[in-house]
Amino acid sequence: MPRITTRSSGPDWTDPDCPVARTLDLVGDRWSLLVIRDAMDGARSFTEFQRRTGIARNILTDRLRKLTAHGLLVQRTAPSGRRQEYALTDAGRDLFPVILTLRQWGERHAFTPGEPHSTLVDQHGAPVPALVPAGTDGTPLDADTTHVQKPR
Amino acid sequence: MPRITTRSSGPDWTDPDCPVARTLDLVGDRWSLLVIRDAMDGARSFTEFQRRTGIARNILTDRLRKLTAHGLLVQRTAPSGRRQEYALTDAGRDLFPVILTLRQWGERHAFTPGEPHSTLVDQHGAPVPALVPAGTDGTPLDADTTHVQKPR
DNA sequence: CCCAATGAGTTGCGGATTGAAACCATCATG
DNA sequence: CATGATGGTTTCAATCCGCAACTCATTGGG
User: Fold this and answer.
1) Sign of torsion, CA A102 A34 B70 A16?
2) Using the beta-carbon criterion (under 8 Å), do A117 and B24 form an inter-chain contact?
3) Quick check: B140 contacting A, CB < 8 Å?
4) What range(s) does the HTH hxlR-type domain occupy (chains A, B) (predicted)?
5) Are A85 and A76 in contact (CB under 8 A)?
6) pLDDT recorded at residue B84
7) Are A4 and A25 in contact, with CB atoms under 8 Å apart?
8) DSSP per residue over chain B, as a string?
9) Residue B30 burial (C-beta neighbours within 10 Å; 0-12, 13-18, 19+)
């Protein structure tokens, strides 16, 4: 998936210094994050991912392989005997905040007021509150009150 | 960008009920979020976006147009007289938590230990703390302690 | 044992998307 | 007027994607 030529060996990233760009090199395509979303929601098998996302099967094959190769999923034999299954690794599970913020942005900006949509709730059925960036002292942070510091 | 045939008119979404999928329909491609990232970091002009991302110019034209059409950017004449510029709208700025969680995931999982990367710091130069999902009572939430509730 | 169904892919192919590079129009400056 | 910067558009080849058909290995009955 990398696209910029490097002078040295190893995986070549779009923007090697930027963690945002590196993450997008791994999951910044049309389908990967929807596969992760469904994995978080209980999908385990090839067919189940295919049914939920509606993705083309050859593309699903490719995405499952890439996500596995990058350590977001592991393929293992299901506890119930003989079938294979895909499960989230710790790194994969750690994408939860990403999926959540994508969800919350969508709820705010991709639906007309009053239009129904699915909701994320906790174990008691209470909606998950908005995830808002804050400094160590608790003050909210945004693009205007932060900036990127180059590596040194 | 839509990919699933609809029976009725209007924009057709990959998965109309899911806010995650709708967000990805708008910014879930290779470049859009990097453009947003650079806009948050001060980029304003076509040339500046092109320089920072390294994206092909025709694709940049397309992305800027789509992001503008979807209300994440506005094109306006720069305060300094005659040049055009692109600026984030409120909806665009509201992607800050998404960019931040992508960044933090990348920092944790896309760099080898000790490898240098850029950092996000607040106005005083202090690193922005990890953004962690929590319930109304403050207990941390993850994929295992939440679930999606279908719209009703 | 034979037949069908299911799961998990693979293959082939046409059409859509992307990337690289060249081209073009409009200013501003020297 | 020549040069350079800005902001694109055009062209064309390469890649990616979706669809449908095919394979292959397991079950599950009858």
Assistant:
1) positive
2) no
3) no
4) 18-114
5) yes
6) 80
7) no
8) ---S--SSSS---SSTT-HHHHHHHHH-STTHHHHHHHHHTT--SHHHHHHHH---HHHHHHHHHHHHHTTSEEEEE-SSTT-EEEEE-HHHHTTHHHHHHHHHHHHHHSS-TT----EEEETTSPBPPP---B-TTS-B--GGGEEEE---
9) middle
Cα–Cα distance for residue pair B134/A48, rounded to 1 Å? 29
Please give the structure tokens belonging to residue B113: 């230990």
Q: Which two tokens stand for residue B92?
A: 């665009």
Whether residue A11 is predicted with pLDDT greater than 70 in this model: the reply is no
Rounded CA–C1' distance between B92 and C15, in angstroms:
32
pTM over 0.90: yes
Count chain A–chain B contacts defined by CB atoms under 8 A: 244
Bridge-partner residues for B147, per DSSP? A121
A100-144 pLDDT, tens digit per residue, is 999 999 999 999 999 999 999 999 999 999 999 999 999 999 999
* Site of tokens 């760099």: B111
B44 is written with which tokens?
């304003």
Residue A14 near residue B34, CB atoms below 8 Å:
yes
* B146 vs B149: CA distance, rounded Å: 10
C-beta of residue A63 within 8 angstroms of C-beta of residue A92: no
Walk me through the domains of chain A, giving residue ranges and CATH numbers: 19-96 (1.10.10.10)
